[in-house]
Write a structure and sequence with these properties.
Structural class: mainly alpha
Shape: elongated
Largest sheet: none
């Protein structure tokens, strides 16, 4: 697909509009017509560039992610987790959490969305995250045979989903920092001061 015809600024503008519409109306009500109208584009251009609504949504979410997690290397796993958290503020974290909760619901009824999210967002994120964990193993912070290693992403996603349900409060830095220190690091056998 010839994505190169769009300038980076125009691509960012389109992705921002997609995410804004997702927050406003949700995935099911989001249409290529609405994206075209919001961005002063033609629907044909959107389909030519992205092929489908699921791919456009997945690429918009990918574009919105901070830099590659595998680039984070502070020298300690706790430091790496802190650096990951510092890449977003509480307000953006709350907006992203609400967006992901809505998409998690939409995925059940939309196999094409699920596939696009897995290929374009989840797998690249998990690959990068696994590298952060592998470095902790190589440094000797985490035992290579620790069964919690494969469950860290599940723990973190669980925290993101559970906080609003259980506490009726948004996920924020303070909560995630406390969760990492009290749950994630101990499960990996990592001691911290």
């Amino acid at each position: 697909m010839a994505r190169s015809r769009l300038t980076p600024e125009r691509e960012t503008e389109l992705y921002t509009a997609v995410l804004d519409l997702l927050r406003e109306v949700g995935y099911d009500a989001l249409t290529m017509d609405a994206v075209a109208a919001r961005t002063r584009s033609s629907k044909a251009t959107l389909y030519r560039q992205w092929g489908s609504k699921p791919e456009l949504v997945a690429r918009a979410l990918r574009h919105n992610k901070p830099a590659d997690l595998s680039e984070i290397d502070t020298g300690s796993l706790r430091g790496d987790f802190r650096a990951m958290l510092e890449r977003t503020d509480d307000c953006q974290m709350e907006k992203d959490s609400a967006l992901m909760r809505g998409l998690a619901h939409a995925v059940h009824d939309n196999p094409d969305l699920h596939r696009a999210l897995r290929e374009l967002l989840i797998e690249p994120e998990m690959t990068a995250f696994r590298e952060v964990l592998r470095r902790a193993v190589r440094r000797g912070e985490v035992d290579a045979g620790n069964p919690a290693l494969d469950l860290v992403p599940h723990m973190l996603v669980g925290a993101l989903v559970a906080r609003p349900l259980i506490d009726d409060r948004p996920v924020d830095h303070a909560f995630l920092s406390a969760y990492v220190d009290a749950v994630v690091l101990p499960s990996l056998g990592v001691r911290h001061p």
